[in-house]
Design goal:
The structure is a single chain. The chain has 306 residues and is α/β, with parallel strands linked by helices. The protein has one domain: UDP-N-acetylmuramoyl-L-alanine:D-glutamate ligase, CATH 3.40.1190.20. Helix content is 39%, strand content 22%. The strands form two sheets. It has a ten-stranded mixed beta sheet with strand order 3-2-1-4-5-8-9-10-11-12, sandwiched between helices. Strands 6-7 form a two-stranded antiparallel ribbon. A hairpin with a 5-residue loop joins strand 10 and strand 11. Helix 1 runs parallel beside helix 7, helix 3 packs parallel to helix 4 and helix 7 packs antiparallel against helix 8. The longest helix has 27 residues.
């Protein structure tokens, strides 16, 4: 059965973020991907220089109208990531609402990219749009700790508080919530970050149940760009292949990340030379080289069922 994804994300000529980070791995795993590029930049903004264009809400609507006029606006999944314009984000929400009317079983995977480590890097006006319009439409939500705290107005210091926050996010609409990274203490020590997942299920007898998992993920001492976009894309793919098993989906997602990052850091360190820190160009994700790992990841991180 053909599975088609509409991915609305940024595009770079050189390197891997946004749609460049999501499209290839999804295609490798058998998905048809239609991409709308919210920006077209020469490279990601972590470089010294970048140039390019930003798609307006009106231009987004024009592209969508073209798809609709040809009656090919039928999608199984929608995937969205970074957006920094309020009218653009509202237009995205309107399009998803319309696509869900056309296909009620459409699954919307939303990475609510707003900031990290206590700092917002999008305009604050986006928060209420995510809260009131976008999150209620999402089936799968992948915030980091800071974004989850922003959406719920609650802080997490313990696993119990993290679970309460995930429950609050479920109440907004999403059946699946994955906290992609948190500062919660890991039983393995400081060199690990903690990810948590929660999935609401309806059992065959009509009763409800919930799956919750925790993953302790080894940290890597480097700044990568595009990993969050890859994470959301892989979670889309692996929850599709394991619709009833959040543990398996998250293990495969995180293991793909592990393989790609490990290959990237090894290459970057070789290119930089002994004792030198790799530059942004050397740290671009080794995506094509990781094709086999994307298709069939060796499980490197086991999830604990809570």
């Amino acid at each position: 059965m053909e599975c088609r994804v509409l991915s609305i994300q940024s595009h770079v000529v050189r390197g891997y973020v946004g749609n460049k980070s999501a499209t290839f791995p999804l295609q490798v795993l058998g998905f048809e991907v239609d991409s709308i590029n919210s920006v077209q930049f020469s490279n990601h903004t972590g470089y010294a220089h970048w140039k390019g264009q930003v798609l307006t809400a009106e231009e987004l609507n024009v592209l969508y109208e073209g798809i609709k006029l040809n009656n090919v606006n039928h999608y199984d999944y929608v995937l969205t990531g970074y957006s920094r314009d309020a009218s653009f984000l509202e237009m995205v929400a309107d399009i998803i609402l319309e696509l869900k009317k056309a296909n009620p079983s459409l699954v919307y995977v939303c990475d609510p990219v707003m900031g990290d480590h206590g700092v917002m890097y999008v305009p604050e006006v986006l928060l209420p749009i995510y809260k009131d319009k976008v999150a209620p439409l999402a089936n799968v939500l992948t915030p980091n700790q800071f974004e989850a705290e922003l959406l719920t107005g609650r802080k997490m210091k313990t696993e119990k508080e993290a679970i309460e926050i995930m429950d609050l996010l479920h109440q907004m609409g999403p059946e699946t919530v994955v906290l992609t990274s948190t500062d919660l203490p890991s039983k393995h020590g400081d060199q690990f970050l903690v990810a948590l997942g929660s999935k609401k299920m309806v059992n065959p007898d009509g009763t409800n149940s919930i799956q919750r998992i925790r993953m302790d993920i080894p940290k890597v001492d480097a700044v990568f760009v595009g990993t969050g976009d890859l994470f959301a894309a892989m979670l889309l793919a692996w929850t599709h292949h394991h619709p009833k098993d959040l543990k398996a989906a998250c293990e495969k997602t995180v293991s793909v990340m592990h393989h790609v990052i490990k290959r990237t850091i090894t290459y970057a360190n070789e290119m930089a030379g002994p004792g030198k820190r790799p530059n942004p160009a050397q740290l671009e994700l080794r995506m094509v080289q990781s094709k086999a790992d994307i298709e069939d990841p060796v499980i490197m991180v086991e999830a604990t069922v809570l």
